[in-house]
Design a protein that fits this description.
Blueprint (H helix, E strand, L loop, with lengths): L10 E10 L5 H12 L2 E6 L5 E7 L1 H11 L7 E11 L7 E3 L1
Parallel strand pairs: 2-5
Antiparallel strand pairs: 1-3, 1-4, 2-3
Helix pairs in contact: 1-2
């Protein structure tokens, strides 16, 4: 749970983003968005050309990140975002790139 909001337990967003999303600043900009939203987790390039995001935080902040990932504001050209939600594990001390 976040210290200021005990009504919403932390959640985990796992997303796979496809399209032209590598070598366009996608990870860096995702890192900036996640930090701005107070999320923890990791963003990484995958061998298949996609980007994987695992983020934990409040449901509202995760929704904001997901909306940004799907928006024209995200760098490159996003073809699709496959996302799932689960309980947070608390394994991340901050948000980072891999």
């Amino acid at each position: 749970m976040t210290p200021t909001d005990t009504s919403s337990p932390a959640r985990r967003l796992t997303a796979r983003i496809t399209g032209n999303v590598q070598a366009v600043g996608f990870r860096y900009r995702t890192l900036q968005q996640a930090i701005r939203l107070g999320l923890t987790g990791v963003v990484s390039n995958r061998n298949d050309g996609s980007v994987r995001v695992v983020a934990e935080g409040s449901p509202a902040d995760l929704d904001s990140l997901l909306q940004w990932l799907e928006s024209p504001a995200a760098p490159g050209s996003v073809a699709a975002v496959e996302a799932s939600s689960s309980d947070a594990t608390g394994e991340f001390p901050d948000f980072r790139t891999d």
